[in-house]
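thought: fold this chain, then report.
action: predict
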Amino acid sequence: MDSARFKELFLPYYRRIYQVAFKLLGNSEDAEDIVQETYIKLWERRDELSHVRNAEAFCTVITRNLCLDKIRSVRYDTASTDDERIALPDDETPSDIVERKDHNRLLYGLIDRLPDMQKKLILLHDANGYTFDEIEKITGLTPINIRVTLSRARKKLREQFMKHMAYGE
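observation:
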């Protein structure tokens, strides 16, 4: 695929890609970075893109995955609007770090298996710190629906996490 065709197919989705990244990360600078990473990934795979049926959906999935990778990274603070990052405790041993990373990986794997709306609400509220009012504007759900859905998602995560931890012992 040549650059003219690439621009014609994928540049119209810039706004959509940015919105997805911003909603998940809550930070405009990081959202811009993800948009750039998305276009880089698309350009690197340009020879395979002729088989893509829905360019917008393809862009959105790549963007979402890049955002989730960023959120999953241990040092990313999703509530941060600057370059602030989470400071790790000085007394944390290497085994503590490995265990925490394993638990985080497990938790995000479990989140990824939740139904779409539960996953979206967990990421918006618990990972990105959006308020119920902000989530209501984004999703169109009422505050009561948001609370109930979050409660069910957390309960399911807790059960699955504990089940996995009990199985591992």
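thought: worth noting. Residues 74-88 have pLDDT under 50 and may be disordered.
final: tokens above.
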